[in-house]
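Hey, can you fold this?
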Amino acid sequence: MAGRLIVVPFDIPVDPSSPEAQEWLREELSRPEYQSAKPTWFDLAAKAVQDWIASLFQGPAGNAPSVILVAIVLVVAGLIVAAFLIYGRPRLNRRSTLERRSLFGSDLRSAAELRESAESAARAGDWATAIEERFRAIAAALHERTLVSVSPGTTATEFAHRAGEVFTAEREALRTAARSFDQVRYLDRPGTESAYQQAVALDQRLEAARVAAPAVPA
């Protein structure tokens, strides 16, 4: 290797501060292969966001949990907003809580119609529906006779209490029927033929009883 000459082309400026070198550098970087490798605006923006996120976790060690907590809160808030935008504001059930727990709700059928519906359900072995409809028939019948006042929001327990004030001998039977109604309607119990027959017998006894209508306060 000793004595080997290294030939430097004289057409390439070797002084980086010379105008020729700077012009050569500009021409070289303007070539297509260099321009195609130049980062786009999206690359620069993504790099800036990445650097910002990284800076959050590069601060004092004590700040890391706070940063993570804020990030979690922001994510949860974003999910809630997205749920509102997708599904809309949660709506209450069309029936109010009072109506859901009531005897009749918006049901305007007569006692006779309710009895017929109960018998039809009993023939089909649908004891839950049969018990519901028969207890409603009992309440509707006493309301039609103006013996017990029943409003759309009256519950089975309230009706049993009011009816027990008029038919004192049937208080326990009324409470039992009200419990059977609540069990099949609100606790999804299947009901039994025995419970239905007890409601039928109660309905028949109340229908045969002759009591005076309660006095209306002046």
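Oh, and this one too while you're at it.
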Amino acid sequence: MSPVKQKSPNDVVITGVGIVTSQGVGIAPHVALLSAEKAPDAIVETERFAPYPVHPLPVIDWSEQIAKRGDQRQMENWQRLGVFSAGLALDDAGLKDDLDACGSMDMIVAAGGGERDINVDSLIVDEALKRNDREQLLNEKLTTELRPTLFLAQLSNLLAGNISIVHKVTGSSRTFMGEEAAGISAIETAFARIKAGQSTHTLVGGAFSAERLDMILLIEAIQGHALDGWSPIWSRPESGGMILGSVGAFLVLESREHAEARNARIYATIDDIGGDRGKRDEGKLEARLETLAAAAVDAADTVVFSGTTGFPDLAAREKAFVEANLPKAALRGYSGLVGHGLEAQFPLGLAFAALTLGAGAKVPPFDPAEKPLASQPKTAVVTTIGHARGEGVAVLSAE
């Protein structure tokens, strides 16, 4: 059994979860899949971006969280997804209509860049085939073809700005960029501020739209895609890799004292969290993971939610690390079910862990290579190893 931990007023607890994946919108479908005897099939779009499969967005009524059509129209899909998921988290925490609480709520967002003008990109590439003065060509097209408003729409901190406008979250605001590491840093910073008494309640998370030609091109540039169809995350072939997933994942984190003062429902406590980055050769990755996972509990009631990319080498090294250091725990690679969400990947793992511990869900295997949980989970470990750099580990416990 996992050890009983002493409670403290500055414990960091999760009181709200906003989640959107290809499996559905909100808590209900995700608790259902975490509680099912058998995991649902992955939902994968294989035609629109062939040969690159993606886990697409489900059907969403944006007006449920973004009431004004004007607000919806001026956002790109990744921003809509983030604002929508943030609203779900605030609703779930019972804070959506509490103007005082939202007015003093801190916000930390992990975000990538805005969507590119694909027509201009294509024009530049086509023209570059006909000319040798490509630097001159690029300057010409950047000054004549791009709309001034496009630069505004690409600002990463617009996601936080739109959340402030739509949901009236107007405390301090921070935005992190940097793919998976951004999501790790966002959660880690929120945790540290609450733990230190610098914040009492924080909205934190990220969003990623996989259904973007520019993002698909970026991953293709490093030959990082799994091609032609879905395959289980732990057994993708050497030619395999990431299958991107459209994901929105936001959490409301509070100090225990703040949450208990308003009689909030608590999903789980975050016991420890850490992020790092560095070279990965000669066992350096495993050494960092060992340090980051020092607080993890090896027990039959521990579930490990891995945000592995699906890159064969990284996936094999992470699986070997977990099996060697947490042999009693049950591993769950959630990327195989809902795809890889870059900035949103680590927040998504914490959302799955919080829902699991809050519901006492005996999570079914997501992959044939995973073993069943021996008992109802009491602790959860969340890992994310960035596709290029950055690692993060969080340890959570049930209330």
